[in-house]
Sequence to fold (235 residues):
Amino acid sequence: MANDRPLVAAKGVARRDALRGTVLLHPTDFTLRAEERVAITGPSGSGKSVFLRTLALLDPCDAGVVTWRGERIERAGIPSYRRRVAYIAQRPAMLDGTVEDNLRYPYTLKTYRDARFDRDAAARLAHAAGRSADFLDKLASELSGGEAQIAAFVRVLQLAPDVLLLDEPTASLDPASVRAIEALVGAWFDGSDGSHGEQARACIWVSHDPEQARRVATRHLAMSAGTLTENAEAA
Ligand SMILES: Nc1ncnc2c1ncn2[C@@H]1O[C@H](COP(=O)(O)OP(=O)(O)OP(=O)(O)O)[C@@H](O)[C@H]1O
Ligand SMILES: [Mg+2]
Fold:
C-alpha cells in the first residue's frame, strides 16, 4: 500500500550551533509517508526551520541520515533529491527582473534540463492563487511580501515536486491569499493542479496558527527547544 512507503525519513538527525556548540536539534527520528500532510507548530526559535532545512538537505546535519524512499542520499544525488523535495522559505528570495524571469530561472539549472517553462501552466497557477493575468509581467522588486510568496509558490509548484516542505509560507499574506495558497497546495496534493497526478505526494507545513494546522494537515507535531514530538491532541 502506498501509505506504508516512506518518502522521506530521518534517522537520528541532529544539529548544533557550530560556534557555541549549543543544540539546535536533538537527535530526531521522523518518517514522512506518501499521502501524509503534517503540520509542525511550536514557539519561535524552537527549531522548526532548522528541522525543515535539515530534511531538505540545505544545511548539513551533524549526525544522522536522511533517506529518500529508503535510500541514503549521496552528495551527487542532492540536486535530484531537491527536485523531489522542495523547500519554501519563510522569506523567499527573488531575482531581479519580472515574475516570469523568476519562474523561468529553475529551468536554466542542470537538474531541470529535461523540463521546459510553460507560461500558460504558470499563469494558471498564479490565477488559482488569486492573481490576475499581468502577474507574470510584474517586476519582482515591486511585489508585496504576499505577492512574492505567491510567486515563490508558482516557481516551485510548476516543477511538480513530490514533497513540499513549507516554512510558514503564508505568514505575510492577507486572509484571502492565505486561502488561495492553501487551495493551491491542496490542488497540488491531490494532483488536480494539472501536473502529473500519479506520484505519491506528501507535505509538511510549519505554522504558528493552530487553526491553519487543522485545516492543512492530518498529522500534528510539536517542536519545543529542538525536540520534535507527536501531538495527537491537536489532531
Ligand atoms: N545556521 C545556524 N547557526 C546557528 N544557529 C542557528 C542557525 N540556524 C538557526 N539557528 C538558531 O536555532 C534556533 C532555532 O531556529 P529556527 O529558525 O529553527 O526557529 P523556528 O522554530 O523556525 O522559529 P520561527 O517560528 O521564529 O521561525 C534559533 O535560536 C536560531 O537562532
Ligand atoms: Mg522558522
Notes: The first strand starts at residue 6 and ends at 16.
